[in-house]
Amino acid sequence: MLWRHLCLVRAWSAAGLLTCSMLGTAALAEPDTPAPRGETETVDVLAAQKSGDLTLDVRGSGQDRVRMTLQNTSAKRLNVVLPPGLVASSLAAQRGGGGGGFQSMGVGAVTNRQGSFGRFAAPPGSESGFQSVPVAGEPDTQTVTVPAGQKVELTIPAVCLNYGMPTPTYRDRFHLVDVNEYTPDPRIRKALRSLAETGTSQGVAQAVMWRVCNNVPFELMVEQASKVINVSEVALAARFVEAVDMANGEEVVDPRYLTESRVFVHVQGEGALAKDAQRLSDELAGLRVLGLPVRVINPQELKEVTSAPALFLNVTLTDGRTGETQGRVNLTRASAEGQWLPLGKTTFTEGSSPSVLDGRGLAKALDHAVAAAFVSVKPVKRGVGSTTLKVENRLPFTLANVIVKAGNSSGAPAVPFNGLGVGPGRSAQASIQAPGAVVERVELNGL
């Protein structure tokens, strides 16, 4: 099968960065003139199209995005909701291809983030809002405001649904439909709707949909697209497909299945610290590290954990200066073959003595230590008032949120990069209004 017919996501540059057009950074072309005062109505995009309040022009824009123009034909200002589970449908692709047909595309969420796919809604029990509350200056991932009588143009991340068919171009027009109208297959419906709601990286989302829609073996994806779908992304995709098949009768995957038993921790202490280590282990159970619930486990029990991806943090408390707690952390990761492989090491220092430190304090210290060691931010471009950062991910999960500090001082403000969607072993870019930044913590959603 020819490479040009595989509809693979765009290749990475030699430097490992996403290309400028990768994943279709949203172009929110809202008019410069102020919107007229008057009634505002929140409408579903498909319902508004059907009622005649909105006209849509949806076109191809390469193998990882679609271009959408929303024209408001009403006298009201419209807040247009783009719900999870939309498909830019090519009727020829639905008929199985041939005859000059082209790909249908599963549509993600409106986002300014390179590499992300979906809304990144917060999982149950999460202390963060993920993308449930948009960050100032960023578009809401569910709604697009279109002033009366005007139009807005968007470029939205998307994934191919017909492996092997030609990539759509701007000459190709789509028909926007709900996934329930696109296909009667409950697995496809559940997978696309869940991905768009939960959020992940482009590579993981593409691997899932090729598997569910076209039954493409994961091994073939890695072989044919090793630069854009790596082994860690395949492991995440395989876990998600497993969750789809287990969610019998449900319209979406329960996100708790994606987050539970992903992070395992063992705490031990040198010498007299053994007692404090045991207490901290008990207090750590059920708390969150890296945004995922912790399961306390003995190293001997790891052989019973075979479902990748997963992380094991082997924590050793060590003697430190009076009034502080120091420790080492050895990280291993579960492979698809059921083996635990070394990931790396880091250390931490917490400003409380071991007898005073509690489970939440230890979880916070581990959060910072692991994030700072395995996620990096480096300036790649400086402009007037802002700096473009390269965010690199060495963890075996997609980054949902990355929280950085704009400087090294303890009082430096924390800046969240929400819905970043950087897959394992990948990098992306984000901008900050500061000369540089350091990683404070990260949040994962298990996908």
What this model shows, in words?
The protein is of the alpha+beta class. It has 3 domains: 3-244, no CATH class; 258-371, Rossmann fold; 373-444. It is 21% helix and 32% strand. It contains 10 helices and 23 strands. The protein has helices spanning 45-51, 91-94, 179-182, 186-198, 202-214, 218-224, 231-246, 255-259, 274-284, 359-374, and strands at residues 40-44, 54-60, 65-72, 77-81, 86-89, 105-107, 116-117, 143-146, 151-160, 173-178, 200-201, 263-269, 288-289, 292-296, 311-318, 325-334, 340-350, 375-383, 386-393, 399-405, 414-422, 427-432, 438-444. The chain has a 6-stranded antiparallel beta barrel with strand order 2-3-9-6-5-10. β20 and β21 (414-422) form a beta hairpin. The longest helix has 16 residues, at 231-246. The protein is globular.
> What is the end-to-end distance?
29 Å
- The class by helix and strand makeup works out as alpha+beta
Spans with pLDDT under 50 lasting ≥5 residues?
1-36, 95-100, 129-140
Cα Rg: 23 Å
Tell me the major beta sheet: 6 strands, antiparallel, barrel
Helix content: 10-25%
Strand order of the largest sheet: 2-3-9-6-5-10
> β content, as a range?
25-35%
What is the total tally of β strands?
A: 23
What integer is the average pLDDT? 85
The number of distinct helices, counting runs of at least 4 residues, comes to: 10
Silhouette: globular
Integer count of domains: 3
